[in-house]
């Protein structure tokens, strides 16, 4: 048990299972539209492996940034550049795929929400700032983000919004710049 009173092993197991389900459940169907839109033909299996690698990298980035989205935001720009470079279709097609890739790359941060029911089962007051500090949320974080529910939602939703917008924006910018005639 750690200082929160939670046994770490069940938390780790839940996170691994949830992330495995999210990676396969969302990556499997996403591979086909990416394979169809790419200007260089690759098999759907190749895209599935690539998406799994992206997911694992996003998980590592989320863990390395200690539950924040610092490294994940950088990766969102990278995914946008790669998507804009690999997919040569209309801006609407790139925007749609960028939205899907951005949402997919946000899933590791969203999986963080799977810890919240475990805390609730352990009778943690999820709307208490004191419980948030006991869990490890810094004291300078203002209410409502200092509560467990607020912190978990802030981390997950900020990843979803920031990373999706950044991935789509960079991909569209890359595609629009590549369509310009060279001087």
Write the layout of secondary structure elements.
Elements: H1 8-37, H2 44-64, H3 70-86, H4 91-110, H5 115-121, H6 129-135, H7 148-179
* Low-confidence regions: none
Radius of gyration: 19 Å
Strand residue content: under 5%
Can you write the helix and strand succession as a string? HHHHHHH
Helix content percent band: over 70%
Q: Name the average pLDDT.
A: 89
Query: How far apart are the termini?
Result: 64 Å
Number of domains: 1
The overall strand count is 0
Largest sheet: none
**Tally of helical runs:** 7
**Coarse structural class:** mainly alpha
Large-scale geometry: elongated
Structural overview:
The protein has 183 residues and is mostly helical. It has one domain. The chain is 73% helix and 0% strand. The chain contains 7 helices and no strands. It has helices at 8-37, 44-64, 70-86, 91-110, 115-121, 129-135, 148-179. Helix 2 (44-64) runs antiparallel to helix 3, helix 2 crosses helix 4 and helix 3 packs antiparallel against helix 4 (91-110). The longest helix has 32 residues, at 148-179. The protein is elongated.
Keywords summarizing the entry:
single chain; 183 residues; mainly alpha; 7 helices; 0% strand; elongated
Short summary:
With 183 residues, the chain is an all-alpha fold.
């Amino acid at each position: 048990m750690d200082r929160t009173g939670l046994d770490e092993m069940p938390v780790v197991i839940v996170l691994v299972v949830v992330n495995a389900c999210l990676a396969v459940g969302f990556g499997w169907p996403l591979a086909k539209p990416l394979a169809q839109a790419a200007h260089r033909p690759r098999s759907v299996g190749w895209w599935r492996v690539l998406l799994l690698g992206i997911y694992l990298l996003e998980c590592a980035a989320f863990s390395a940034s200690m539950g924040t989205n610092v490294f994940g935001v950088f990766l969102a720009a990278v995914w946008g550049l790669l998507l804009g470079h690999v997919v040569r279709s209309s801006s609407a097609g790139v925007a749609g795929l960028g939205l899907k890739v951005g949402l997919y790359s946000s899933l590791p941060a969203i999986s963080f929400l799977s810890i919240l029911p475990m805390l609730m089962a352990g009778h943690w007051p999820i709307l208490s700032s004191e419980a948030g500090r006991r869990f490890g949320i810094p004291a300078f974080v203002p209410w409502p983000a200092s509560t467990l529910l607020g912190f978990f939602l802030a981390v997950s939703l900020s990843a979803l919004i920031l990373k999706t917008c950044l991935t789509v924006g960079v991909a569209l910018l890359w595609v629009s710049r590549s369509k310009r005639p060279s001087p």
